[in-house]
Fold this protein.
Amino acid sequence: CIEFSIDCGVATLTLNRPEKLNSFNVMMHEEVWEALDRLKMDEVRCLLITGRGRGFSAGQDLSERKPGPNGEAPDLGQSLEVYYNPLVRRLRTLTVPVICAVNGIAAGAGANLALNCDIVLAARSACFVQAFCKLGLVPDSGGTWLLPRLVGRARARGLALLGDRLDAEQAEAWGLIWKVVDDEYLIQEAMALARHLATQPTQGLAYIKQALEAAERNDMDAQLDLERDLQRAAGRSTDYREGVAAFKEKRTPTFTGK
Ligand code: LHQ
């Protein structure tokens, strides 16, 4: 259900069930989880996630939702508890930067998994759909938390309650994603960005991610304290020393990620 490779410090995870628009079944969840285990290797300094075919992901595979043995409704809460929530928590706490290249339609949990990544690029033909409301469901995988923060109350409500397609350009204009890229350059551009990030001060980027994540909950006072602590740690890193030395010597720094 997925392809996974590591090259030049970049781990690339490609969702690969194009005939089902890369919707998530149990096997795909398990393969993604195993792939994320492989990021622990030191050489990985950036993760790039994308999808094969004309879709990024249509969210949960709806053909998999079978009733229980006595005909009772499947427990969707359990599906979130076991698969989606751990995946979202894991994605959000990865120390390496995570780029998502949204190659086509991103619907339901597929849209929200993308929005949990650090930098979201989207093909001009891609779109985002909070499809949940059309099934009587609630935006999950962090959707109800993310949407108001990304686009504000009014737009979050419009997206979640109407479930309309939001095209990539509008998503960029609203600040839902980082950038739209012409379809034919999407992977190229995403890979160039990933390779760039993989040469940067990886530990420093991890501290930045940690600070921004904490800022979603902290008040200014707590955040100032956290910045002090992280800056103290960052100031002891090899890459900080290298960055300053390279600046003084007017040369390009070589960061090791430490
Ligand atoms: C699919 C799917 C799909 C299976 C397209 N499943 N086959 C979490 C926890 C537990 C349970 C519930 O949910 C969740 C979170 C969620 O993600 S809920 C939201 C689930 N996703 C959706 O509601 C989106 C359903 N899909 C669609 O509305 C459309 O397919 C979109 C708008 C994404 C694309 O439309 P089209 O471009 O017209 O493509 P299509 O509908 O023809 O789809 C192509 C094929 O992919 C088709 O198969 P077929 O064999 O007929 O060619 C679809 O059945 C299949 N497919 N989404 N989620």
In short: The longest helix spans residues 76-93.
